Amino acid sequence: MAKDSHRSNDADRKSLPQDERKEVIDLLTRNGLHPESQAQKPARENMPFIMVLLKRRLHILPIITFIVIVAGFFTSYGIAVYHGHAEADFPYISYTAIYAPERCIFSLIINLGAFLLAANIYIKYLEMKVAYRRINTVSRDRILNKIALITGFISAFGLSMVANFQTVDARVGHYIGAGLTFIGGIIYCWMQTALSIRYRRWSCIAVGQLVMSLVLSCSLVIFSVSKAIYKIQEAQGVGTKTDKLRVVYLISTISEWVTAVSLVSFVLTFFKDFRGLSLHLPKIEFTDYQKIAKDYVVRGNGQAVAPVMV
């Protein structure tokens, strides 16, 4: 059967006039699709500008992530206050994205931020994986690195849920997303802190991560307790957020903002490590150049040439 296929290809080649066959080969060569032209000229890596920038300056990714997510918080807050949909003195973050148009902006920006956050987490995992391979570390730390990756992805996914499930229209989904974001984020931060202290001792990065993890944990506890107290007392008719419960309400909302910003700020500790990394995108190569000539129309000088075997 292989011989028959080979004979068929030979017959196709012979059936093509010599001058037309030469024209097709020239067109393939000019378009960089002929095997000989591929061998003579190295492939150029064409990437969007942002990817080229990240390849050469990967350490700006944590900064971009921080700016995007925090900008999403304050942009929706500003729009909500401008339209009178939320009070100016620190509402809950979720209550700045209940009505249009702020909830549309919030969902758009925070979804992008969740993707960037997941990218940071994955790159950090790859960095630690390569580093552990070089220093021949114990398997326990490699497992912890994988668990941190999964936990970080869960936190990023929860952030996307928060953006897409508004607290009024989809309360259950919103609270599940918030729980995944905060709890998963705290676990991830403490895992990274433990790994940093283990291998970096008490370097600036390790100390910075420890401080951020402590602030994040304390602010989350304060937020959870104060919000529970506020909701219980409000349900009992003790007061509202504008009178007797004003203090506990502000403690709850401010601690939520501190928790969210602290969680996002943790990726800034990756800045120094990412300076020593470079990004390489996957690339594809044609393995059957005859298939290109057979299945695709090669255009040259403004005219199309019929698909042929060369």
Automatic annotation (TrEMBL):
Keywords from UniProt, A to Z, are: Membrane, Transmembrane, Transmembrane helix
**Where do the record's region annotations for Disordered lie?**
1-21
GO CC terms of this entry: endomembrane system
InterPro entries, per the entry: CWH43_N, DRAM/TMEM150_Autophagy_Mod
Q: Which residues cross the membrane?
A: 60-85, 105-123, 143-166, 172-190, 202-226, 246-271
Q: Where in the cell is it found?
A: Endomembrane system
UniProt key word Glycosyltransferase: no
What is the protein name given in its UniProt record?
A: DNA damage-regulated autophagy modulator protein 1-like isoform X2
Q: What species does this protein belong to?
A: Biomphalaria glabrata
The organism that produces this protein has a lineage beginning with: Eukaryota, Metazoa, Spiralia, Lophotrochozoa, Mollusca
